[in-house]
Amino acid sequence: MSSHVKKTFGGGAPPAPAALAAKVRTLAPSMTRSMQRVAEAVAGDPAGCAALTVTGLAELTGTSEATVVRTARLLGYPGYRDLRLALAGLAAQQQSGRAPAVTADIAVDDPLADVVAKLAYDEQQTLADTAAALDTVQLGAAVTALAGARRVDVYGVGASGLVAQDLSQKLLRIGLIAHAHSDPHLAVTNAVQLAAKDVAIAITHSGSTGDVIEPLRVAFEHGATTIAVTGRPDGPVSQYADHVLTTSTARESELRPAAMSSRTSQLLVVDCLFVGVAQRTYETAAPALSASYEALAHRHRP
Asked: Which residues, 6 or more positions from 201, have their beta carbon under 8 angstroms from its beta carbon?
């Protein structure tokens, strides 16, 4: 059994006001119903809730003071006072620059111009939420592991499998040995070969995809450094991850399934990993990237 110690989600400085809404969207599915009521209240009306005492917010949401305090702590704040300060800051930001009045819900009869506007706005919000909630300490540790890796395996299925392919191709072009696996059997048989100098990355929006968790567990138990890119940092995948990179959990509708919003946020995290590794390994990455461009140049000439 590996001696790795799994990092728990949370800790560090409280999230900035702008990150509060993203944190609520990410953690709400794992909360109790009473805690969800508190989280939804503070995210929906930060100005109103900032004016309330802990007793007032408990009465407003039909919960208890203890539930309000537990919710504040789960969201990353030491106590309710810190959450109130963040709410006041968020309310001030919204008053100075309110987001456009565009809904992410796309109706069957929406004109294409409206579809473009709604998707563009929602994608921007997904990216902003992911950037605000992304733990740069965890990101830096993941970059360090990748920069020194002997070999990198990336696991993902469905839409997450496409993101896994994107990351592996990027890493290959800067000289790393990287492979994406969407076949669960092949993923596990490759994970068995990993060791302490290797890195395994699981990409799963739900955090509970068995075909992705299984090879990550095997890699973890064989001593590889493991990374989870997930929208559910408290999901099963995280128990086998040394580093957890959280993606935004955007609101979905019938015509905009999870695969669309999750892919957008996953690609941002993947690009952050790639650029970070390229920075750390610039002396070898730059020549490798130039060589790959040169090797393909003739295919792009008229």
From this structure: 152, 153, 154, 155, 164, 167, 226, 227, 228, 229
What share of the chain in percent tops pLDDT 90? 48
What are residue 202's DSSP bridge partners?
155, 228
Give the integer Cα–Cα distance in Å for 31 and 234: 10
Contact 80, 52 (CB under 8 A): no
* Matching residue, tokens 């969201």: 75
How does DSSP classify residue 99? Answer: P
Tokens 């006041």 -> residue: 88
Q: How far is the C-alpha of 280 from the C-alpha of 236, rounded, in Å?
A: 31
Q: Read off the pLDDT band of 243 (50, 70, 90).
A: very high
Q: What DSSP character marks residue 100? A: P
Provide DSSP, 170-203: HHHHTT--EEEE-SHHHHHHHHTT--TT-EEEEE
The tokens for 55 are 């007793």
pLDDT, position 96:
61
